[in-house]
Known about the structure:
Distance between the termini: 23 Å
Number of strands: 11
CATH topology of the largest domain: Alpha-Beta Plaits
Radius of gyration: 18 Å
Number of domains: 3
Strand content: 15-25%
Amino acid sequence: MAGHSKWANIQHRKGRQDEKRGKIWTRVIREITVAARAGGGDPTMNPRLRLAIEKAKAANMPADRIKYNVDKASGNLEGQALEEIRYEGYGIGGAAIIIDTMTDNKVRTVAEVRHAFSKHGGNLGTEGSVSFQFKHCGQIVFAPGTSEDQVMEVALEAGAEDVITDDEGAIEVLSAAPDLEKVREALEAAGLKPEVAEVTMRPENTIDLAGEDAERMQKLLDVLEDLDDVQEIFHNANL
């Protein structure tokens, strides 16, 4: 299947994440903590923890620091009681935004999220106000130049739901969220190394924003991204 260009958006997002490497570590540690507390400290038995550890490795976190945080969380040592909360809202031009947070103070978090929306041209919505526009799924992305035939053959055999090639030649493999790791492992075993492999909220449709609207939307996303309690942001804007 052909699809709209996602490659530029993915590269743009990765570049901005690289600029904020320290914050990425903080978020990954939170994810490891919640995953280990919820499902135990054995990554072979805890898919969410395995994904969190993969993110930590991708962010160049040292192995001993990863192990320390897994041990700390699974051993129920002293630490913050973190709660996962999702917020939904609208950005510039009606673009849909989902913000996943981990917080030890939800009063503070909702106040900061609401302030960011109101100050930068968006609106914080109610639960379910935009999430219906997204699909919770596994997403694996390969750079342009990867063999589409090989990716399709291996991915579909491993249980992927769809393979989409965008306008720039990047290949996107979609799976049910629980099947992500199985599909990724099959692709990597075939010598196919993805640029992105994650469980995500993928927009069903996108909104194109350009010029001043794109700049305002990026500013809103940056402000939300910089909030301490924010873990992930998903949106349907093509900037």
